[in-house]
Amino acid sequence: MSNVIIVHFKKKSTLFIKFIFINFFKLNNLDLKLDKKGGQRYEVERKFGISTLCTRVGLQMIYFDNAASQKIRKEALETLNKGLKNCFANPSAKHKFGQSLLKKIEDHRNYFTKTVKGKDLYDFVFTSSATESNNMALLSFDFKEGDVAYISSSEHPSLIGPLKECEKRGLVIKELPLDESGILDQETFFQNLDSKVILVALSHVNNQSGVIQPVEEFSQRLKKIKEETKIHVDATQSFSKLSISLFDQYIDYMTVSSHKLGGPKGIAGIYVKKGVSIKPLLYGGGQEKNLRSSTQSFPLISSFTRAVKEGMDSLEGEYNRVDNIYKKIRTTLKENIPEVLFPFSSSDKCKVSPYILTFVVPNISSDIILRHMEQEEIYLSSTSACSSKVKGENTVFKGLGIDNKYHKNVLRISFSNETTWEEGKIFCEKLKNCIDEMSFLMPKKK
Ligand SMILES: Cc1ncc(COP(=O)(O)O)c(C=O)c1O
Q1: Contacts of 312 (CB under 8 A, 6+ apart)
Q2: What is the pLDDT of residue 25?
Q3: Among the ranges given (40-54, 249-263, 373-387), the one the predictor scored with the smallest mean pLDDT
Q4: Buried b vs exposed e over 91-123: b needs ≥16 C-beta within 10 Å?
Q5: Nearest by Cα to 304 from 259, 363, 238, 239
Q6: What is the DSSP-derived secondary structure letter of residue 341?
Q7: 386: closest CA among 204, 182, 130, 190?
Q8: I want to staple 130 with a disulfide (CB 3.0 to 4.6 A). Which of 78, 257, 375, 385 is the partner?
Q9: Ligand 1 center to residue 249 CA distance, Å?
Q10: 363: nearest Cα among 412, 406, 403
Q11: Same-domain status, 206 and 149
Q12: CB 372: neighbour CB atoms within 10 A?
């Protein structure tokens, strides 16, 4: 028997009070019925005899925050488990057991260079995270006071942070120009290129906008003008999802990270062009060719390699499959919620990765939507887990050209090899319901 409670809000009730109230009922598995006629009236239908703090019992989680971290792939988990169980020796040990693991690590390293056509041209160093790889590259090169490095303010903090450190020692940081679609404005850049430029750092796919930077073409153009300038590419959001080749050797350093592509956390890597300077962050036993001391984790390395292989072997098919879901979600969101805005779109000039879809719901705080959706076991992101916020202004969104008035309304969904259109459909429906409820709560404009 259902038990209906009708709630009247006072005209003065704030949005916050209403939000807390409604979520209290949601947390207790009570179904809400909005009575739009009354304007301020709610019917709360008690559906399940007992209240419980567990929401969406029996419903499956929809995880759309893969750009922050992805679930480990089945095959990578199997490899990890086997490695942890059986391959526990220290690869630096002189005995047969340790040496056999060291040999396998070298095979995995070779796979990494071969898979981007960089064999014999690049070294590959295993690190613990993309953050470590970025720091290693950007703190490696020598510079004189007044030398210039270019980076865009929309970059990940693990690129900006080490350059800020170099700035304290006299490196001049200049802004890499992006056009209104978020793509590198090459004409403006080359017209104003500072003759003291020694480094350019940029992401292949921006973690917030999904915009794909034409890193290969740009690097070639830059190297033709200034061969000695170093180019660091952060491929954390693209590796094994979009193709990239190091065959032409225009890129000097390239970062990749395991947990963004279905491998375990705690392992990542960096490509370094042979002959280009790279300095260790960690000194000690001299592992990783003296570039990263500390015991190598064979289980993590082999599981990371397995995840990359799975991604590389299905790269094109997966790209098309995810692209299809991306387009359907985008279209459905626009149909269901006409006010939704998409700040980044593919066009002739600009390509956006189908693994990342960023949108804006004007007037409703993205954090409120996030809280609402998580009660439905649906996970998305309101900003990058690491992006900087200064007094409500988000420097990354600003750098990407998103109007200040929308900084609190930006949402990002990001996909993986496990994402299905079924999930996309539920997501669109649930988001529409959430926004209908929230819009109803918004103070009516007179
Ligand atoms: C472009 C980019 N670079 C670096 C990182 C940091 O990755 P990690 O967690 O492996 O340090 C991220 C994570 O969001 C990222 O998106």
Answers
A1: 115, 240
A2: 65
A3: 40-54
A4: beeeeeebeebbebbeebbebbbebbebeebbb
A5: 259
A6: B
A7: 130
A8: 257
A9: 23
A10: 406
A11: yes
A12: 22
Q: Please compute the mean of the pLDDT values over residues 41-48 and round it to a whole number.
A: 43
pTM for the whole thing?
0.86
For the Cβ of 206 lying below 6 angstroms from any atom of ligand 1, the answer is no
Instruction: Give the DSSP letter of residue 433.
Output: H
For residue 158, is it within any domain? yes
Cβ of residue 108 lying under 6 Å from some atom of ligand 1: no
**Which of 210, 213, 227 is CA-nearest to residue 151?**
213
CA neighbours closer than 13 Å in the CB half-sphere of residue 373: 27
Owning domain of residue 220: 74-313
Q: Which residues pair with 76 in a beta bridge?
A: none
Q: How far apart are CA 389 and CA 397, in angstroms?
A: 10
Q: Considering the domain boundaries, does residue 65 fall inside one?
A: no
Q: What is the Å distance from ligand 1's center to 399 Cα?
A: 18
Alpha-carbon distance of 55 to 334, in angstroms, equals 28
Question: How far does the centroid of ligand 1 lie from the alpha carbon of residue 158, in Å?
Answer: 7
Query: Is there a contact between 344 and 210 (Cβ–Cβ < 8 Å)?
Result: yes
Question: pLDDT tens across 81-113, in order?
Answer: 999 999 999 999 999 999 999 999 999 999 999
d(CA 292, CA 247): 25
